[in-house]
Structure formats: structure tokens, C-alpha cells
Amino acid sequence: MRTLYPPIEPNATGFLPVDSIHTLYYEECGNPQGKPVLFLHGGPGSGIDAKHRQFFDPESYRIILFDQRGAGRSTPHACLENNTTWDLVGDIEKLREHLKVDKWVVFGGSWGSTLALTYAVEHPGRTLALIVRGIFLGRPKELGWFYQYGAHHIFPDVWETFLKPIPENERGDLMQAYYKRLTSDDKKIRQQAAHAWSAWEGATLKLMFDQATFLDFTGEEHADALARIECHYFINSGFFPTTNWILEKIEKIRHIPMTIIHGRYDVICPLENAWELHRALPKAEFFIVPDAGHSGSEPGILHQLIEATDRYAQIA
Prior knowledge:
- Helices cover 39% and strands 16% of the residues.
- By secondary structure, it is of the alpha/beta class.
- A hairpin with a 5-residue loop joins strand 1 (12-17) and strand 2 (23-30).
- Helix 1 (85-98) packs across helix 2 and helix 4 runs antiparallel to helix 6 (187-204).
């Protein structure tokens, strides 16, 4: 089984103002003359981590990572203003131009897969290849599965904790109920909601529960950005103009080399999402990992991701 490449430090870091409110943190690692690859983190709102640099051979790739609006070291923290999918797609182009990249491989998991696919649809001429895992297409049926009715059948114990901050009379629309609390002026209410929202995701992330990952998800600062920004995007259905926008636009990216990787027991983003993308793009590489959930760090998913990045390093 393949594992992460050894830890590396950035060659360069910086802050890129993208509008009158938001400034993005970014970093470059690996070979400055290597093939450009862009890492897109999940959430939205999760932010980048040092381990994200290690999905790529540092001798082959010029590795570019950034914290999306409101996440990680980007400022202002957890800000929802001017924070939509289309703002992020515009930010990727601003970063590409700032770093003088012509084309790049785009790599993303979970929400990162949504953003990678959306960016490729909007800018197919700038996308050399796509590596996507834990597929999320931003559709109401996917959000309803995880935040209203579906996943709770598998995790009823954790779901009970997720419900606690919400009175019974508001449980008919849990995302709206959480949004009201995550945008409250009362810090205590906001913190309680952010912890519960992030705990639900952190507890269901992997096939086997991982205490360290759970603690990362529920740390106060991380949970605040993750919960607020996710809920903001999700109550707006990802800001897509139609409920199946990515698959409706799939013809625009049919020619782009692509690898799709998904865990069989992914509860957050069910395998059906990846299967529908695979059926729409039958020439793309498609791997179902039989013993994994949603996380990119699970051994089988990690193995396929490293294999994919090594293959694309050889493509001209």
C-alpha cells in the first residue's frame, strides 16, 4: 500500500487579496519547475494542513495549496460575506494568474471535488487533469441524506447528539435551524452549534472512528469556520443555478483526463454520487475502495490517490 510522501516545508508562502474583504493564504512546495498541481481542501471551510502537501512527489510537482475564503489562515476568519462557489472559482483563477501558471492538475476531495469539477467546467482550458475523491455534487438529495434523513439510520447514537441543540419544533429543517444558531450574535449559542455540527461530520468521516481526527474537527476555531461556511453553502445548495448543475455541464470536461476515487462505505457522500459521475464520464478512471469511508487519509483511498498523482506526473 502506498503512503504519503515525506513531510516538506513550503518554498514560498503569501497572502493574496481577492476583493475588498477577503485575503487568501497560499503556499508553494516541491519543485518550482515541476508540473503545477492545485490542492483544493474540503468543507467548505476546512482549510489546508501540512499533510496535504504529501499527496504529491515533490521532485515532480510544483505543489500549490491555499485556504479558501474564511478558512485556515485566510482572512477574515469564518466570514460569510462574498463567499460563494463562484467567488472561489474566481479566486482560483486569480491565484493561477498571480503565480504565473498556465495549466495545472487539479486535485480535490469531498467539497474539494465539487470545486475542482466546477472550476474545470468553467476553465477547461486551464485544467490538465482532475483527481477527485469522496465525490460531492452539491445536490439537495445529497444534503438531505446527511443533514436530514438517511445517514442517521447508520449513526443513530451520534445523530442524537447532533439533534440536541435544536428544539423539536425546528427539526423539520435542520440546516436552517443550525444556520440561525451559527449566525447568532450570542457567542455561546454559536459555539455550541458549531461543535455539534462539526462533531457529526468528524464522527462519521471514517470507516473506523478516529479520535485524533474527531478532535481536529471539533477544535473551537476549526469548528467555527467549518460549520458556518458549510451551512452557509448548503442552505444555498452550493449557489448552483440548478439542482444538478455539474452533471448537466459534464460535456465541457469530457476530454480532460480524470481519476475518480470513492470509499464503498462513505456515509457523508454516498457512493451513488461517484457512480453517477462515473456513468456520465465512462472513460475516466474509477476506483471503489472496498474498505473505506469518506476520508482521504484512509489507507485504501490514500493508496489510490498517491498512485494517481504519480501517474499524472508523467503526463505531458
